[in-house]
Amino acid sequence: MNRRIFNALSVASIVAVAGVLFGCSGQGSPAQKAGASAAGSADAPKVAGVSREGGRIVVGLEDNFAPMEFRDKNGALVGYDIDLANEVFKRANLPFEHKSINWDKKEDFLLKDKSIDIIWSAMTVTEERKRIFGLSTPYFKSRQVIIVPINSSINEKNDLGGKTVIIQSGGFVQEALKNFSGTNGAIAKLVEAPELTVALTNLLENKGDAVIGEEMVVNYYISRSPGKFRILKEDFGENDIAIGFRPGDTELISKINQALDSVRKDGTEQVIYKKWFGDAVAQ
After folding, report:
1. Is 191 exposed, middle or buried, given 0-12, 13-18 or 19+ CB atoms closer than 10 A?
2. Cβ neighbours of residue 268 under 8 Å, at least 6 residues apart?
3. What pTM was estimated for this model as a whole?
């Protein structure tokens, strides 16, 4: 599945592996447990391009990408994107609900049958998606970061030469690593793990020297496993994350962008970030 250029995490395996190693959990409201959220008053202003009864905006997402959006052990929909969307729609005074979708069919749901009005699901900005969708201002950046054990002698990217590196299967960073050469030459061995939690577990079990993975996911798990890992300052590239719209829904895009800007300027965005990712972990 081509979700965000890299493979989405499996919630079942996250619970199985991370539940022991990282002790992760989520909290949700009764509304979230029902798989929907609502914001805005009953007399909220109508927005051009959204013709659904009552003007309720349907937000499509794939609910298996912790910590951005996933189901907790009670089935509640939780995550960074969920908390941020709740705040943004409240400030925009727009009623909405979340709807789980098949990510591979997101274009059809949004553009053809219009069963959803927005895609808000940690979507990476690419040149192709710029042509297909209307996009919000980017609200998140995620680097391909390098993770090593806390006492590792690896301190910079060049130190990866001659080492064994673990990555998540299907990650686009694999292409960049093919041409990498460090102080001691190319990477000696590239090992693929089905999920990032598995890669980090393998790193602690000395099955590799470093892990390269998505910062948004790495920070979540490392913050729940203090004193075991370090993230190097250097990385293998950065991605913008944005919300997808129908290209013609300019009024809706503008309202969401204004609310995002408000959340960012008054510090609420940072509060939500800290809840899910903890304090900054880069060196």
Report:
1. middle
2. 87
3. 0.71
